Amino acid sequence: MSFEGYSPAALDFLWGIRFNNERGWFLAHKEDYQSHVLAPTRALGEQVYDAMHEKYPHEPFLLKMSRIYRDARRLHGQGPYKDHLWFCIRAGGEDWTGRPTFYFEVAPDYYSYGMGFWAPKAALMEAYRRRIDLHPQELEKLVRKFNRQTQFVLTGQEYKRKKGETSPLLEPWYNRKSLNFQHELPPDERLFSPELAQDIITGFDGLMPLYKYFDALCAAEAAGEK
Questions:
Q1: pLDDT tens, 166-176?
Q2: For labelling alongside 104, which of 5, 134, 169, 187 has CA 20 to 30 A away?
Q3: Where are the domains of the chain?
Q4: CATH code, 8-222
Q5: Looking at beta carbons, which pairs linking 129-137 to residues 24 or more positions away fall under 8 Å?
Q6: Alpha helices for the chain (secondary structure H)
Q7: What is the pTM of this model?
Q8: Interatomic CA distance for residues 87 and 47, integer angstroms
Q9: pLDDT, tens only, 69-111
Q10: Strand-pair category, 61-65 with 101-106
């Protein structure tokens, strides 16, 4: 099944669950969720994954789809359902936190895709800064290329107190608790077009050098290398 674009009914459902986050409403609209949100998101994820796997067959990528059901142990006063859905493409393994991950997410008021980290450990970010200190030219080359494109922006929480000094080029990348390379827009005509899939594939391909840089860093940190 190829991705044909989302429909306005997808946003209708996502707005609906945001303001009616309870079981009765969800069950009454479950077919809308399955047809207009879940099915196209799965089709989009599979199309993007297939393209990435074909181009990078030696990367141990897996496709992971989110569930609309919140973890009952972590509701924290929120309703039992999410008002957004996502898929991610990442390396295999049980523990994928702190690993570079490609992602797409759709919500009632935005859609977003890119590559970044989910809750990287402090030790990983320390290893990242050490690598910059020892081999700044590796990241400088990638940053220059990243700064020439306009699809993604660098985001991620910054430390309140600087962790060190580096070149002006790398300064925005150095003192961060996490890094995310993000393209986010309010719902527009692209969301409803099959061409969105190619936008994401092209974007992920452009981020691949950064993915490999951070994936190698994660592997080295896990192996205890300096």
A1: 999 999 999 99
A2: 169
A3: 8-222
A4: 3.30.930.20
A5: 129/163, 129/164, 129/174, 130/226, 131/217, 132/166, 132/170, 132/173, 132/174, 133/164, 133/166, 136/166, 136/167, 136/170
A6: 8-19, 23-28, 30-32, 39-55, 122-134, 136-148, 171-174, 195-222
A7: 0.93
A8: 12
A9: 987 656 566 789 999 999 999 986 656 667 899 999 999 999 9
A10: unpaired
